[in-house]
Amino acid sequence: MGDELQLHGPREKKKRTGGATYSPGTPPSSSSLQRGIVPFHSELDALVLGVLQKGLRGHGTLKRFGAVTLSSCVFDRDSSELMVAIGHVQSAVVAMFKLQLALSFAEIIFISTLCRFSTAYTPADNYLISCGSSVDTTVGQRVFVADDSGSVTLTSSHSAAVRAPPGSVPGSDNATAALYQTARVFTAPSSYAFKISRPGRHFVRLHFFPFASQRYDLAAASFKVSTQDAVLIGASSSSSPSSPVRDEFLLDVARGTLIVTFVPLAGGLAFVNAVEVVSVPDSLFAGPAAALGSAGQQLSPVVPPLQTAYRVNVGGPEVAADGDALWREWSTDQGNMVGSAVTREVVYTGRLNYLTGEATLDDAPDIVYATARELVMSDGGFDSSKQMTWQFDVAEHPASSYLIRFHWCDIVSRAPGLLRIDVYVDSYTAVKDFDLSAKGNGTLAFPYYVDFVLGSSDPTGKMTISVGSSSATEMNSTLPDPILNGIEIMMMHFSSGSVVVVEPTAGSKRQHLAIILGSICGAFAVVSIAAVLAIFFLRKKEAKVQSTPSQSKSSSTPWTPLLSRLSLRSRRHSSIGTEQPPSSFTVDGDMPGAMIPTAVSPAAPSYRFPFAMLQEATDNFDESLVIGAGGFGKVYRAMLPDGTKVAVKRASPESRQGAREFRTEIELLSGLRHRHLVPLVGYCDERDEMILLYEYMEQGSLRSRLYGGAATAERALSWAQRLEACAGAARGLLYLHTALAKPVIHRDVKSSNILLDGGLAAKVSDFGLSKPGPELGETHVSTAVKGSFGYVDPDYARTRKLTAKSDVYSFGVVLLEALCARPVVDPRLPKPMVNLVEWALHWQGRGELDKIVDRRIAAAVRPQALRKYGETAAKCLAERGADRPAMEDVVWSLQFVLRLQDDSGLDFSDVSSLNLVHELTPPLDSHRRSSHGNEAGGEEVQDVSVTDGDFTDVSMRGAFWQMVNVGGR
């Protein structure tokens, strides 16, 4: 909010006006000058006064030479004598300002353009579309172009451009209101297609304000909105909001075209006033985020889509889109404050200290970090019950989890280490005794943020955030009081259901082109339809004569009904009062809604289980039987009637992966069998359920046996067991990469997805994100980045090019976890130790990897084995995929490490393990033939005994090859 200077008698008083919004770049008009303020007529004078009026108060230069001097400029318009005196004062003031501006030109430029950072980031994609308008619409410093201008492709068989009646849009004198004067209305599924020049993260903003036109009442609209990969709005009912609504989504766009589809529900209509598609830095909301209530456990990862629920400039003014580098809007916090705590707003007058690796102007504008709300505690000393509290209505923004970002900038301390803060979210402690200056190595006034994930909100639908002073300040009342600068709340897993996409066609480049073509071909279409109908009825009659009872029966294989059901369910979700969607629809991304996939092997050894049987086996899905949870749903321990122990993974209603992951796991695991892959026992798809059954892994995940509650001293794996587990998992991944004509890339390799059976044999699990690799002759597959934070290949994240080397990188991270027994990212640790990969590679580069080995196994690790193990992990973690070894090389290297660990008499200190692997590796063709031969039930090759010291080329080749035989046993 801007401040308005009003002069009352000899003293100056600042009054905050409720409707002011911080949007730099527009100097105040002469009409904004109130009676009692000396009128400045020159452009320079207007600039100076504009700076003062726009809320940039407190800046040293202007405060000394501006506000103090202006306080004497009080006059009575009826007193000509006083007016003459005022004229002299005014001249002196102007001269003083001009002199100061000349001396501090660069400083004034900085102040007068504070928060005008839209030029700091230039988006590769910047689509601003005014829907239903025939002319461009200017909003602030941005221009929204008409949706029929050709800048985007509108595909719609039934749409109309409508205009709001005069006076129906509130705030008609506001520049933003012009955006809501028109709308595009759809009565059938329709889409906008945007060409993407730089794949990566994008903001998609949808603007809505329902008004009643002559033909349509937009308040009665009911519709869903989706892209090719996500459902943005599951079932929107516009009702009658009193002000425009702007829904903002952060998406990861991997395709060359982004299609936003609007689907009317129940025979109704859909509409939109404006659409924005703007690329943003890929570092935006990239994590890490600590899960509240889970002892600092890291969520993996913060993966779009995210939807903005609240964005608040705490203690500061509203920030319009033009005041933010990425055109976000920030509200004030007054409407969310609750309780009786005494607070004050703080404004910082100096320059902010942006540090490398911390917050940037892309994360929040300066005005957010330069203002704060402070809890006043000095009047009564320390009181742990004193807290400033905000409450947010998340019932209006339902989601299964929320990403909460706190923005801080210590603008109140006189020295480092004085400010200590406690933060609470609902019943959870987010931070305790938080020393902000320690994050900046003693630097003050540096912007900083921290992210948390709240799994669920209070049953009342309210999220409560409280900030109080740490008990460390109890003995010293002179320490600064706690502050907060900003809050962002993003919805995660906010919608479910099948995506619906209306693909653009050659005739939909421009909407009127389809109309022209339809008019030209009208007569021909009538004749064609008549001919098609005649042929149809003739063939139908012929089919009736030839049909037999056996043709109406279901397929004998259990897979066809399942996939038919998936296809029909997808059609049912996407139908809009009709039996099936148009042929141009695509349901669930790459699964055609009008086709039944046929890629599943009919000989798959998995079976469909009745839902009633699974209810009984899990005691009606009793929560006490839950052994895990993920993006797909919860996993239950169960026992089948024949006594077989199984793990039952049931899709949750909030699952964003849904049918796609369900189908992927069935198709993949039905065609693959290997002793180091978790086998699929069966599935259930009754009652719209999506349930998968796996062989039960008694010893849990590798992660749980390395660190966490289950990794007690008694249950922690030994060094030898860790090596065997890593080698086994590597064999499973090698089988995925080489067993089929096209490699299968797992995409979610991590320690929690490596399970251990009763004998501690490692098996790779969770194939929901798996994807076929490149065709022969191709180098990669272009796709959206998916995976777990801390494990994702940086080369893949940067280029969107997926290869088998992405799994190699993730496996390299697992190798470090097994060695160090700690989380991949842990923000509770000192800054150099937060990221496991960076920390471990630092010590590996110094040749001192032994200093970070898990102390429980340190005494058992042989130096020769550790050196080769560290070398293998480092090669897996190379920045570029081309510099990493193939998984077969990793398998050989780990077997080499096992030999070094098991036999102290071996000394290969002069041989690079990975070079040795290349020398010993059999030809790839024979490797694959061996793999397929074993899978087909061929004779299993027996292990070859090798005595110590007998390392001829032949014996070594045979011995190592038997160690890494990838065939199933």
UniProtKB/TrEMBL annotation:
Biased composition range(s): Polar residues: 576-586
GO molecular function, one term: protein serine/threonine kinase activity
CDD domains in UniProt: STKc_IRAK (cd14066)
Binding site for ATP: K649
Alphabetical list of SUPFAM superfamilies matching this protein: Protein kinase-like (PK-like)
Subcellular location per the Swiss-Prot or TrEMBL entry: Membrane
Domain Protein kinase: 621-897
Feature: compositional bias, Low complexity: 18-32
Region Disordered, residue ranges: 1-32, 570-590, 922-942
Basic and acidic residues: compositionally biased ranges: 1-10
SMART domains named among the record's database cross-references: S_TKc
Cellular component GO terms held in the UniProt record: membrane
Membrane in keyword set: yes
Domain of life: Eukaryota
Entry's transmembrane regions: 513-538
Name of this protein: Protein kinase domain-containing protein
